[in-house]
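Appendix B, Record 12. Input sequence as logged:
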Amino acid sequence: MDDAPRPDDCQTMIDVRRGVDATDRALVALLETRFAYMRAAARIKPEKGQVRDEARKAQVIENARVLAEAAGLPAEAIADLWERLVETSITYEGAHWDSLKG
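Logged structural output:
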């Protein structure tokens, strides 16, 4: 990630902040890709009712929780973040569906 030091190589708060900023840029780039998949889903789904899939939502959130736990991260907090991410994705996909087919 950019020229930011790895966390274990940080010697100052400037190093830490460079790393956090670089990580945030990478996360936003990944979110851009995730939302591109939401646009693809909107294009592919023939009916707007298919935008919301509660079983899939639960699966995605549980997957994130399990991955977080395995990584030693606060699993329930990550699951809460994913709840918000998935709800935002559903809203975004629905709006994109409307713009294509509504």
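The chain has one domain: 7-101.
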